[in-house]
Structures are given as structure tokens and as C-alpha cells.
Amino acid sequence: MTEENYKYRTSPLFLRNQFKGGGKHKIPVVPRFQPQEGDFDDLLLIGFDKIRLEDQRHLGRMVHFFLYDYKFERVWKNPDTDLEKLRRYRAVLTPDFSMYLEMAPVLQLYNTFRNRWCGAYFASKGMRVIPTVSWGDESTFDFCFDGIEKGSAVAVSTYMVSAHGNHSDQKEFFMKGYNEMLRRIEPEKIICYNEPFPEMAGDLVFVDYERSSWRHLNDEPPLGDAAVQFSAAPQPENGELIFKTGYVVCDRELNQKGEGSAYGGDWKPAKPEDERFLGRPGEIKVTCTLRGERYETKIGDDGRAIAERHHTDHNRSHTGHTNPHDHNIDWDRGVPHPGKPINYPDGNIPEFKCFKEAMKTMSEPIILKDDNHGRFVSISDFKWCMHYGGEVQFLYNGKGYGIVHDPDGIAIYEARKPETEKICKDADEVLEYLIDGVRLRDIITEVWVIERTI
User: Fold this and answer.
1) Is 428 helix (H, G, I), strand (E, B) or coil?
2) Which end of the chain is more exposed for a tag (fewer CB within 10 A), N or C?
3) CA distances from residue 76 to 50, 69, 96, 114, 381 in whole angstroms, order as listed
4) Are 185 and 152 in contact (CB under 8 A)?
């Protein structure tokens, strides 16, 4: 045997045996992520195919691999090639090698191994790494969660299993694996790339796909001389770490893939009150709430809501919230998103009408029944509602409370008691609001929701 042959056959990059393995398949273990203050606040992602050595603008992002496999195969074949680029960013998600249901089981196992091996390798080079978790059907549960330490932060994607475009809804399949992941890994944080399903439990961080997409990479100002490498390695003396704070959802780029079927739906109403956001072009849909309040929703030329009038002041007249007030509805994120309230303090209220000659009357009203259909099924469901501009009124221990968006944040208060109002910066702070000495976080799934706009 020649020396060249001997070196090749014994090379760690050939054997891939240099890391401690977990489970019967000895899948490499990715060291548990050690979060720093602000890591998950206003988190943005950047695709591996968009990272650059000269990038000075996006170093506060985490790098993701929710791309077609061919775009990142080289991190497995030649793992040293992109190290210098990767180590500059805040953290790196492990490569999301495909776990399609149609794959041969041995390929699913192989791709799980490659996912974890790359993560362990990146960590050994001083990078901060978060494991991406994917699964196939239940037969993959024997190995697809291996190599991740209990309590670690993880990343998942709902994109390929959600109903959108030509994708069918594969939520039931996804939730089986997701709940098994919760049971086995007990993750501290879960980055969800794409809108989470309301049933998803755990401490979710979901990423705004538009803000994370390539379309908005140039929106951020350059970091300039203060830019540093977000890695476990020592930082330059007197360097300034730059952190940004907030939420993360996901990127609907055409090159995204993930788990679910390899062969691969628009927003659909999930609750009776959601039906008001879709209708015939030009009509005004009417919704009557349990409190006798009235919403009028204007439908645009594409059959989607463009504006809404709320005949209520949400018990916030002391702040200038008027009855009525209006909201413009945008769909930039693929879901109906009410904008900031448009109030009429001078009483000069414009007529709320459509300009379609064919539509001269309002639709039959949607009457919301007293069945708590708008209740929050999880903390994630509440965060989703807040993220997309939802307004809520609920009862707890016989008292009414309201949550509305305010120019300065999100306001929560006890009805008709202005002194109880608190302006919060985000949904997590709202969840810390005390009601009768109990955090809203601990009772949000128990309260009786009497009004919920989204």
C-alpha cells in the first residue's frame, strides 16, 4: 500500500469518525447551543447561498440551509471551503439535507448523519451552531433526533408541509414528528422557518420570511468598522458586538425545500371570524361579535380584504381610540395583516363603501356564537395573532381585558380601567402581564375569548 493510499483511507474526512456519536448509528453529537442575550430577538436568517466574505451588512443574522441540496452539497464534500465565510455570522443552522417521504430509508439515515456531522464540524471550528431537525415518517424516529443534546435550541421549517402554491397540507404528518421531537429533545428554543401551526407547543421563535428573504438583503445599513465575527472564538479587543432584537418567520423563496413529500396551497380561513377576509370583489362583509360590536370588511378586486372598520373603541377612548376606527389590511406576508388604527377624533368619519356598481348592499352578517371558538390553543397561537396585528378581548375571573396594537407597541389593560394599561414592546412582554397575580402566559389558553380579529 502506498503512503498516499494509506493517508486517504485513514483520513478523518473519509472515515467521518472524529466526533462522539449518539444512538445505535453513532450519529455525531452537535454541542448544545449556548445562547447570548438578544440571540433570538428580531432574528433574521440569511441563506447559505447569499453569504459573502465581503458582507458587512448581515453579520447579525444566522445562516440557514433551507435550500435545494445541490446549493450546499459542498459543505459536506469540502467542509473547509466556506468556513471563513460562515464563522463571521451570529450562528449557523446545520445543513438541512432532505428527508423526503419517498426517499429510501438508508438515504434518510445518511442525510441525518450528514446534518449532524457538519454541525459538529462547524462547532469544532469555533462556530455557534443550532441543529436543524427534519424527519420522515414514524420509521425515521429511530434516528432522526439523534445527535442533539437534550435542552438544545433547534430549528424546524413548516414550509414544505403547509398548504400553499401547489403544496398540499401535510400538517398531521409534521405534527407527529414535531411532538416526538418535543418529547425526546425538550428544546429550549425552537426557530420556526415559516408560519408555525397553532398546535405547535414550545418556546417558538418564528421568522418574518419577507425580512429574511434575499429581496430585502439590502434594506439593512452596513455594520461598518464595528462588524465582528459572531463565533465562539475570542473577539477583537475593544470590538463592539452588534445585536438586533425581535421575531423570526420564514422565507418563501422558490428554491426552498425541506421535509414532507418531494412532490409537494394560499391562506385559508381557520375560524368563522376569518371568513370575513375573503369574499366577492367589491362587497362589504359584516361580522357581529359577542359583545354586539360590528366589523365591516371591504373586499378588493382580488377577493381579499383591503380595509376594515371596527365599530368599537376597545375600551380605550382615553388614548384617542375612536368608535369607529379603520384598519388597512395588507397581505405582504401571505396572511391578512391589519395595519395601525386610523382614528377620527374630530368626528369627521368618511363613508365606508366600495366603488363597485354591482355591489350596492352588504353581505349577510357573520354572527359569532358563544362557543369560545376564538380561544388560543397555545402560546404560539397567541404570538401568531399578535405578530399579525390581531386585537383581542377576553374574560378571566369575571373581568374583561383587552389587547390592541398601539403606535408605541401592544397595549394590554383591564376594561374601563385606564390605570391598568401597560404598553409592551412585543408578545412576550404581553404574556408577562399580571392578572390577579398570575402571568397571562400561564392562563392564555384558559381565558374566554369574546373578540378576536385574527
Assistant:
1) helix
2) N
3) 18, 11, 11, 7, 37
4) yes
- In angstroms, the CA 295 to CA 352 distance is 11
pLDDT tens readout for residues 401-451? 999 998 889 999 999 899 999 999 999 899 999 999 999 999 999 999 888
- The model carries a pTM of 0.54
Picking from 104, 95, 69, the residue whose alpha carbon sits closest to that of residue 147 is 95
C-alpha–C-alpha distance, residues 406 and 408, integer Å: 5
Which has more confidence, 356 or 306?
306
Distance of alpha carbon 373 from its chain centroid, rounded? 23
User: Three-class SS of residue 371?
Assistant: coil
What residues are paired with 193 via a beta bridge? Answer: 157
Please enumerate in sequence order all residues whose Cβ is within 8 A of that of 136, keeping only pairs 6 or more positions apart, or say none: 99, 100, 101, 103, 105, 108, 144, 259
154-174 burial, b at 16+ Cβ within 10 Å, e below that, comes to bbbbbbbbbebeebeebbebb
Q: CA-to-CA distance for 148 and 126, rounded, in angstroms? A: 18
Q: What is the mean pLDDT of residues 188-204?
A: 90
Cell of 243: 445585536
